[in-house]
Amino acid sequence: MARLYHLARLNNRCFRLDEPLVSAFVERWRPETHTFHMPFGECTITLQDVAYQLGLPVDGHYVSGCLTDFHVYIEGGRPAWQRFQELLGVLPPADQIQKFAVNCTWFQETFGECPDGADEETVRRFARAYIIMLLGTQLFADKSSNRIHIRWLPFVARLEEMGGYSWRSVALAWLYRCMCQVANRHVVKLAGPLQLLQSWIFWRFPGFRPVGYDAFSWPLASRWSGYNPGVSEKGPRVQMARLRIDMLQARDFIWMPYSTPDVLQVVHPVWEIHRAMLTMGLEWGRSEITSLACPVTTRHFRRVRIG
Question: By its UniProt entry, which InterPro entries does this protein fall under (predicted)?
Answer without folding.
Answer: AminoTfrase-like_pln_mobile, MAIN-like
